């Protein structure tokens, strides 16, 4: 014990006692840390704010940073690969970043995914299913919404997905209040991802997910008077990061309900609005390219039964694809 302590003192004192700076050693240590995934261990990042920067690292990778934050003593970036749309949490000191703009990045796949549709005179005030509701090509994009719920996670559905093959892609739209009340089930989901059983894209589904059944759509969901859309976006992202899951470039409006103002705010925050052309419990059947919507949060068993039946009957288009391939 005493020997170890003495060694530690010597190690701290050594750089002070020598003239030659251990520059190479320090760089090597930084490189090793840069390759390690960031682990928040439950701590919520602070000083969380939106940015748009173009970043490169020593390996020549280029990413766009859309959020900057501080976790412990470390500045972090939430980044998106402008070609693959994959997101990752990075240590800021491992990247060289400069401010950029939507216009300067307009040719990237990411900016094309965010592109604003041309308004038409017929555009209604309340938008239903605005944004990305289908993808190109074969197969389907399976998405499951985890709206706030007192009921347990439908593990059977996720196990059915996992049985389709290793790393079956699924996008889970997760609300802040679901995370708060389902810690064990979130851990189970993370295990499915870590083991390679599922390839999960985590979609922000707002923090509070307000909903009052008796109100018209124009006054509920995120159109509820007084809703702070930035808080709904950022508080959920911070909670996701604290819990070790990385927010994707997608946001799903509760009820798929929005308006032009909410769509504009989402674009400003560099998030792609995620709709669905096949909300199974409401009837529309999947076809190639469909974004399929179910609720594995215990609140919509009918949709899961339809999913299971269509899969058994071979009526669910294959393959299942990652949501990042849809835009
Ligand atoms: Zn929902």
Word description of this protein:
This protein is of the alpha/beta class and 327 residues long. The protein has 2 domains: 71 residues; 200 residues, Glycoside hydrolase/deacetylase (TIM Barrel), CATH 3.20.20.370. The chain is built from 9 helices and 14 strands. It binds zinc ion. Zinc ion binds next to loops.
List the helices and strands and how they pair.
Layout: H1 2-17, H2 23-35, E1 46-56, E2 62-71, E3 74-80, E4 87-91, E5 96-99, H3 109-114, E6 126-128, E7 141-146, H4 155-162, E8 168-174, H5 176-181, H6 183-194, E9 198-204, H7 229-242, E10 247-251, E11 257-259, H8 260-268, E12 272-273, E13 278-279, E14 291-294, H9 301-312
Parallel strand pairs: 7-8, 7-14, 8-9, 9-10, 10-12, 13-14
Antiparallel strand pairs: 1-2, 1-5, 2-3, 3-4, 6-11
Bound molecules: zinc ion (ZN).
Mean of the pLDDT scores?
A: 91
Number of domains: 2
Estimated share of beta-strand residues = 15-25%
Structural class: alpha/beta
* Overall outline: globular
Could you list some keywords that capture this structure?
alpha/beta, globular, 9 helices, disordered N terminus, 5-stranded antiparallel β-sheet, binds zinc ion, 2 domains, TIM Barrel, 327 residues
């Amino acid at each position: 014990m005493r020997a170890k302590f003495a060694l530690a003192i010597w190690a701290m004192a050594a750089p002070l006692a020598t003239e030659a700076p251990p520059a190479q050693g320090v760089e090597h240590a930084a490189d090793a840390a840069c390759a390690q995934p960031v682990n928040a261990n439950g701590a919520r990042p602070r000083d969380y704010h939106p940015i748009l920067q173009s970043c490169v690292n020593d390996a020549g990778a280029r990413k766009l940073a859309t959020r900057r934050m501080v976790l412990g003593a470390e500045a972090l970036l939430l980044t998106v690969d402008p070609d693959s749309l994959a997101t990752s949490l990075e240590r800021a000191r491992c990247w060289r970043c400069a401010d950029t703009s939507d216009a300067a990045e307009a040719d990237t796949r990411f900016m094309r995914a965010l592109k604003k549709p041309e308004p038409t005179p017929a555009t209604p005030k309340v938008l239903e299913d605005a944004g990305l509701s289908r993808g190109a090509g074969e197969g389907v994009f399976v998405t499951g919404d985890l709206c706030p719920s007192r009921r347990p996670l439908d593990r059977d559905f996720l196990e059915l997905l996992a049985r389709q093959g290793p790393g079956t892609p699924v996008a889970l739209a997760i609300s802040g209040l679901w995370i708060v009340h389902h810690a064990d089930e979130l851990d189970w989901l993370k295990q499915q991802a870590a083991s390679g059983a599922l390839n999960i894209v985590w979609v922000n589904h707002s923090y509070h997910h307000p909903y009052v059944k008796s109100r018209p759509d124009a006054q509920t969901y995120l159109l509820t008077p007084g809703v702070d859309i930035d808080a709904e976006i950022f508080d959920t992202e911070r909670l996701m990061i604290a819990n070790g899951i990385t927010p994707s470039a997608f946001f799903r409006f509760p009820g798929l309900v929005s308006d032009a103002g909410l769509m504009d705010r989402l674009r400003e925050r560099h998030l792609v609005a995620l709709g669905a052309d096949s909300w199974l419990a409401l009837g529309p059947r999947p076809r190639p390219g469909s974004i399929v919507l179910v609720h594995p949060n215990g609140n919509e068993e009918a949709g899961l039964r339809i999913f299971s039946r269509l899969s058994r009957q071979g009526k669910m288009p294959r393959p299942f694809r990652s949501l990042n391939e849809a835009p």
